[in-house]
Amino acid sequence: MNRVGGLCYASIGENRSMSTEAGPAPKRGRLTARRPRDMIISLAILLVPIGLIFVGWRFLMGDQDVNPVDFSETVGEAERAGLPVVEPDGLSGDWVPISHSVDEEKGAVTLRIGYLTPDEAGLQLVESDAKPDAVIDAALGEESPTKTGSTEVAGREWQTYTTADGHSAFVSTDDDMTIAVVGDAASRELKEFTAALD
């Protein structure tokens, strides 16, 4: 009986051993089937907080006001140097001046004032009594801006250009100086700005 019992026990042990060896196979199959899903879940766990941080950053940045600069002293300096400055008049408060400078080089005076437009694009006003070609090269870039036509805005004739980097520009030249308005703003904003120059 003991031997029979032992054989029986051994047979049961072998069955258990076989079942133990056979058991993991389905489990491995289940793990393999879940692997892509687990990867997606892991990625989602990583990306969700990153997305929340990005949205929060955009929200905070969107709430920050851009502080306008006072360019009156710079304009005064340009006028004292002999430049007949033309300033925009009648623009809404959504046009924000953000930078300004005046340079005197080789007897020429150049005034630059940068603006943030109502659509949050960038625009620069350049006024200079240097030679027109030199002003255009400096304001629009030396990489051959493309002349696209001409237009009259508020009684002033403007030549229109597209710069090498895709920005639009309006340029007006008379006997006293050259005015350039250039930036990544839409054409309607450029026209609105040039119409305000008095």
Automatic annotation (TrEMBL):
It comes from the Bacteria. InterPro entries: DUF4245. The chain crosses the membrane at residues 40-60. This is DUF4245 domain-containing protein. Keywords: Membrane, Transmembrane, Transmembrane helix. It comes from Stackebrandtia nassauensis (strain DSM 44728 / CIP 108903 / NRRL B-16338 / NBRC 102104 / LLR-40K-21).
